[in-house]
Amino acid sequence: MFYTYRGLKIRLNERYCLWRSPEHILKMDKLLSETEFLADLRGYYAFILGLLMLISKFDIKTIFIYTFYITIFGILIPLFYPFLYFYESTSFRFFRGLFSYISGWYIDKLIIIIVGLITAGWKSIVAYFTGFYLAVIISTILNYIWAKVTYKKYGLFICDVERIFINVSRYYVDKHTSFNKWIKDYLNGVSQLDSVNS
Q1: Number of folded domains in the chain?
Q2: Residue range of the domain that includes 132
Q3: Could you read off the pLDDT of 8-24 as tens digits, one per residue?
Q4: Residue 197 domain-assigned (yes or no)
């Protein structure tokens, strides 16, 4: 188990994931920072759309529905490996550091509240946060189910954060490696590390 710079927990073997080769060591910062931002993509999408809806004074129902769906989308899309090709080719890279910083201090939530009070009123703010956190609750339940399925299949609890890290690792370091092969290599590698240490 190890953590990203902002304390996001990744329940995988640190030595295998970050220290097993010179390339992994050189790209450690990228692996951790990209995992961090992609895991928070739900907040990024919801923040941008939320600001636009509040400034445009969308009705309460629309704010709730759109925030809910964009948050679900932001939770699910980084779990799919092909998304990383799109992510790397767009302006996402420009905003990732800034958003990761402000969301770490909940500044994004404060901005939403201030803008909402000025433009659309407190009911719109409630609609936004209700949609956002309802999506988060549902994703947590799905995440638990996913973890049980992957544990049954691989003997590992792989939740959304671990899957994102694995995909980031596959994209930047372990190229041309399928998800299943990465898991197989991981299990073999950790077993070898354990046998060396014992």
Answers
A1: 1
A2: 2-190
A3: 899 999 999 998 888 88
A4: no
